[in-house]
Structure formats: structure tokens, C-alpha cells
Amino acid sequence: MYKLSKSISRLRIKCKNETHGCAATFPLSEEYCHSTSCLYEPVPCPHQGCGAQVLRRDLEAHVQRCEHWRQLCPMGCGTVLSHQTQAQHNCYRQLRQEYEAQRQTHRAIAAALQRKMRKMQSTMAHMKRQIGLICESLEVMDNQEEEAENAGESSSSSSGSSSSSSSS
Ligand SMILES: [Zn+2]
Ligand SMILES: [Zn+2]
Ligand SMILES: [Zn+2]
């Protein structure tokens, strides 16, 4: 039994990445050890969001041109750089652009607030007019009641007709 296991461990096997181009053969016992260093082993790209599996020997080249490559600006401006933005990145211009963008959003907020305020003002003016009309009609009603109290039943009908003609 011992002999068998020993002979199995001595058995030379081909690398499982033979199809990718690895020609290495090694004892079964070294399979794991080889796979951690095999240049033809597919390994995931370390950049977040990439998800690409590339052969270990191609990893360095892939990482350098991976579109998911991200790095904070080495000058410390706080911008996250990608391959596309890295070449033309300029801290001063970047900060200025951010400042301008912020100013524009502030302007937009101020304009929206102003619009809201104008709307509220017009609503308030409208309400004021409505209240004025209500007060007027209440006064008219008061007057009518007073007139009705002061005058007899026959004259109250005439006062009603006169008020309707004045309102129209
Ligand atoms: Zn291999
Ligand atoms: Zn990648
Ligand atoms: Zn920068």
C-alpha cells in the first residue's frame, strides 16, 4: 500500500494548462505547487469590476491596459484616474472644473428656490384676493341683514334686487 501511494506520487503528470500552452510535467504531489506559479494558469484580473481571467504570463500586460484600472491621483488632488483620464489629467484644471460644476449646481438650486418663492408669492396674492372677496361678501351680507332688520318684509325684496344689480 505504501509502495503504491509512493509510486502514485512519483507519477509524472502533465500540467492541466497544457491546452493553454504549458509543457511542464511534474510529480502529482507537486501539482498544487506548480499551479500557483504556472505561467499558463488563468488568474482573475485584480481590478474591481473587470472580472477578466487571463493567463498569469499575460496578467501584467493586461493590468497595464485594463480599462478597469483605477488609481488615485499621485499628486493628491483626490481624483480617481483611469487610463482614459490619466494622460490628460491636470490637478488644477480638475479642481477648477469641479468648482465650476459646484457653482452651477448652486446656481440651479438658487434659481429653483426663487421660482418656488415666486410661486408661493403668487399663491399668497391669490389667497389675499380671495380673502378680500370673502370679506367683501361678508360685509355685503352684514349690510343686507342690517337692512333686512331695519326695513319691513316688502322693502327687503327690493334691497335684494338692488344689491344684485350693483354686483353685476
Ligand atoms: Zn503549468
Ligand atoms: Zn482587467
Ligand atoms: Zn490630480
UniProtKB/TrEMBL annotation:
One Pfam family matching this protein: zf-TRAF
Name used for this protein in its record: Ring finger protein 151
One function term, GO molecular function aspect: zinc ion binding
InterPro entries: Znf_RING/FYVE/PHD, Znf_SIAH, Znf_TRAF
Domain TRAF-type: 34-77
Region spans: Disordered: 142-168
ZnF segments: TRAF-type: 34-77
Skewed-composition ranges (Low complexity): 154-168
Gene3D superfamilies registered for this protein in UniProt: Zinc/RING finger domain, C3HC4 (zinc finger)
UniProt KW keywords: Coiled coil, Metal-binding, Zinc, Zinc-finger
